Every structure is written in structure tokens, then in C-alpha cells.
Amino acid sequence: MTERLAQILADSFFKILIPGITVTIPLTVLSFSIALVIAVAVALVQFAQVPVLTKLARLYIWIIRGTPILVQLFVVFYGLPGVGILIEPFPAAVLVFSINEGAYGAETIRAALESVPKGQLEAGQCVGMTYMQIMRRIILPQALRTAFPTLANSLIAMVKDTSLAANITVTEMFMTTQRIVARTYEPLALYLEVGLVYLLFCTVLTRVQAWGEKMLNRRGAQRS
Predict the structure, then answer these.
(1) What CATH number has the domain bearing residue 151?
(2) Does the predicted model carry a pTM greater than 0.85?
(3) What is the average pLDDT across 43-50?
């Protein structure tokens, strides 16, 4: 029994790891990259207090943060075909994860923007810089430095959240594990194994986060 289980775990490790590298990681990176663009845009709209756009941004954040991501996945993948909109599993997952994380990231970046002293905005105006130049060269770089740890934590959380994409038939490593479990009837060992693979990915990202924070702190110290 022990030899059989060891053989199953050995055979399944790379069968789980490969979808993790080819599906889970690309899904995470692509979704998070798009989410950052959404988050920065929504945060800037709120920071600038554009009347109509600010209300739309708050509505977007309210809806997305107030509904479970699993429900959002089901609405996009299983619900939209009812009105004639068909989206393949992987693009549907990217769309949902991007929109979901964009709402949370927008609040993180908005708070970071508001933490930058207002005097720096006024100083930029005094030297003749336009609003967009001030945001791009002065305010946004400082805000992103402040938001980096929280955004990095969100990225790590997204790696784990991608397991929910199995519910819309994305063949990432959790769905692969489920298929192996259905064939071998060893749920405990195999789910622990895929958990260790997730832990491995998140540990690497945690180290990258620590390195990034050191680099940003060093640059901040040099500028000051």
C-alpha cells in the first residue's frame, strides 16, 4: 500500500507541476497585469474626483467586492451564454480575475495616492508641470512604492485563487489533481501534494516580494 501510494505521488508530481507552470502561472501573471492597469485607472479617477466617473468607479468596486469570485466566474462562463456571449474557459478566467483584482487593487492604490503629501502636488504645479506630469513623475511612483507590499500579497493570493478556475473547466493544476484523484482514489495524499506545489509557488513569490521591498526601500533612501 505504501509503495503504491509513493508511486502514485511520484508519477503525479510532474503531471500536477506542468499545468501549474503552463496554466496556473500564466493565468495569474496575465490576470494580475490587466488588473494593475484597471486598478491604476480606477484609482486615478477617484483621486482626481471626476464627478461621473468617480461614481461609476465606486459602483464597480462596490459590486465586485460585494460578490464572491466564484459567483462572478459562473456568471461569465455559464451565465453569459444565455444571452449569446460565449467565452472560452481560459479567457473567461482571465477576465473575471482581472476585474475582481482590479477592484481590490484600485482601493489599495487610491489609499496610497492619498498618503502622498498634498504639498508635492502643489510644488509640481508651481514649477509649471501639468497634472498628468505630476502624477506620472511624482505622485504615482511614490504611491506604487507604498502599495507594493499589499499588491504583492494580492498576487500571492491570486495564485491560490486560480484553483477556482477548475469550476469553469480550466485545466490548471487543481483540476489535474482532481482527475488523478478520480482515477487513483487517493484524495488525501494527492490534495496534500497539490497544496505543496501551491506552497512552493507562493514561497518563491514571497522571496521575490521581500527582494522587491528591499530594492524600493533602498531607492527611497537614496532619493531622500
Answers:
(1) 1.10.3720.10
(2) yes
(3) 90
